[in-house]
Amino acid sequence: TWQALAQVRADAGNARHIWVFTSGGTITAIVQQLLALDPQQAFAINWNLVNTGVTKLLFSGERLSLSYLNSHGHLEQQHQAELITYR
Fold this sequence. Notes:
By secondary structure, this protein is of the alpha+beta class. It has one domain. It contains 4 helices and 2 strands; from the N terminus they run αααββα. It has a two-stranded antiparallel ribbon. Helix 2 packs antiparallel against helix 3. The longest helix has 12 residues.
């Protein structure tokens, strides 16, 4: 996962924005490494990720940080609770 993320960054060149669409498991693995979480903490995060949640990572040189995790306001705006699912 970490090597794939590095490859995406390399392939993007000087692009300012990179969009990657992936599963919650991949997001969890990245967040686990960024925040130095133990497996139990990572597992808890994974089980609470919402479908179509948006996560933003910030790159500055070689530095990578988490801006936000699992934003799902786009689902809440629809005022239909059934759109928000976890599994």
